[in-house]
Write a structure and sequence with these properties.
Order of helices and strands: HHHHHHHHHHHHHHHHH
Helix content: over 70%
Number of domains: 1
CATH architecture: Up-down Bundle
Strand content: under 5%
Structural class: mainly alpha
CATH topology: Growth Hormone, Chain: A
Distance between the termini: 6 Å
Largest sheet: none
């Protein structure tokens, strides 16, 4: 296939837009059921710690999958890896439907399969994302991805909450699990239109995550890994706790759907503005503002635990989260594109990024399990969320000198380093 014409700086080409579509299908399927899967497990067990173990197994499996599947992405099979992740995600919900009420008792197995699906998909996605974008277009891509996620996050949980609330017993949950299965299947077939890229002809460097500490380039990557770890630490605790706290407080899937609708509407606006207006030279101050406000958004929980306090917390979180996520993501991938050697080893560096995130997620979930294993009293939960919710500020401390400084020196360099299509 001949090389395709590159779009103008900052614009997205056909493969970028197709990647957004595939990502949209994946997160749509995930939002329809993922928001309520934890609730499904909670209602069956009433056990905070079991949810923690399910999530911990997911992250351990995800980290191992990234490292092992990086070999195939290195061989130019990133599209195949992404497609396999969608297929395993469909299999996951097929197993949940098969197990039925017994599914929560196999949380460890479900966690392992979920981690496998997530690892395969996001490894393939991130390698392709690096290949079809450059430093000039990544903030735009990330902003649009956030907008899509927010729109889906508004509609899908609300539809799920309405369906579950208006059907008897567990029928609503089973309907939404079947909807997710169908959407994952559709995404699987659409993903065949994503092209694999040319392999670099080099062997996969299995030991890069270890060697990076000794390499000269490690001077740039070591603080980045620290920033990623603290991003993951906050991410995993909040992913489990937010929807669970809303459901425990209200006892209603419908109100949880309403919560998601409102907070994701805020996220939609915030991601749109951030993706459209945040310039590379503003990333440092933008990310600092975002991290401080993310911590401040938790304060209302110390003055009340009702739905209003939770909603205030949710709105504040999603209003400022894009100011943290967009610069963080764009800057890490910009770093991969600064040297031809790292571009050739893009699969290994994507794996390195994900290992950093998952190291933080595993640490965060261990903290969650130990803390709530001792006490799940409301004050303990509030302090757990405040401490882990302040982790993005530490990410900023690690990243503050690496928020796209190379872009200001040589913006064309990134576009030259983009690999060719097959």
């Amino acid at each position: 296939m001949p090389a395709r014409k590159r779009p103008d700086a900052g614009q997205l080409d056909g493969q970028s837009r197709l990647l957004l579509l595939v990502n949209g299908l994946f997160i749509t399927a995930s939002f329809f059921s993922g928001t309520f899967l934890n609730i499904y497990i909670w209602k069956a067990t009433r056990d905070f710690v079991l949810l923690g173990w399910y999530t911990l197994f997911t992250h351990v499996s995800m980290a191992a999958t990234f490292w092992l599947a990086g070999y195939f992405a290195k061989k130019g099979a990133s599209g195949t890896t992404l497609r396999a992740g969608i297929g395993v995600a469909a299999l996951f919900y097929g197993i949940v439907l098969l197990f039925g009420r017994a599914a929560p008792h196999y949380a460890w197995l479900l966690g392992l399969i979920q981690g496998l699906a997530t690892g395969l998909f996001w490894l393939g996605f991130n390698v392709i994302y690096f290949e079809v974008t450059d430093a000039a277009s990544r903030d735009r891509f990330n902003g649009l991805a956030g907008v899509i996620s927010s729109v889906v996050g508004m509609a899908a949980p609300w539809i799920s909450g309405f369906t579950i609330s208006h059907t008897p017993g567990e029928l609503g949950y089973r309907i939404m699990f079947m909807v997710s299965l169908a959407i994952f299947t559709a995404g699987f077939f659409v993903s065949f239109r994503l092209h694999n890229r040319e392999a670099e002809g080099e062997s996969y460097d299995w030991r890069l995550p270890v060697r990076i500490w000794k390499m000269r380039e490690g001077e740039a990557w070591r603080p980045v890994l620290g920033g990623l770890a603290f991003q993951g630490l906050r991410e995993t605790v909040f992913t489990v706790m937010i929807s669970l706290l809303v459901f425990i407080q209200t006892g209603s899937e419908m109100k949880l759907g309403n919560f998601s609708l409102i907070t994701q509407l805020v996220a939609f606006c915030s991601f749109y503005v951030t993706g459209r207006w945040l310039k590379a030279e503003w990333r440092q101050i933008g990310m600092l503002i975002g991290t401080i406000c993310l911590a401040l958004a938790i304060v209302p929980l110390f003055f009340g635990s009702g739905y209003g306090a939770l909603l205030t917390f949710g709105v504040g979180t999603w209003l400022f989260l894009p100011l943290f996520i967009v610069p963080m993501t764009s800057s890490v991938f910009d770093l991969i594109g600064t040297r031809r050697e790292s571009v050739r080893s893009r699969a290994e560096y994507v794996v390195l990024r994900e290992l950093g995130l998952n190291a933080g997620r595993i640490a965060g979930m261990i903290i969650y399990i130990v803390t709530l294993g001792v006490s799940s009293a409301p004050p303990v939960i509030r302090w757990l969320m405040l401490i882990t919710g302040s982790a993005p500020f530490i990410s900023w401390l690690f990243m503050r000198k690496r928020l796209a400084p190379q872009l200001r020196r040589d913006p064309k360099r990134f576009r030259r380093n983009r690999p060719a299509y097959r």
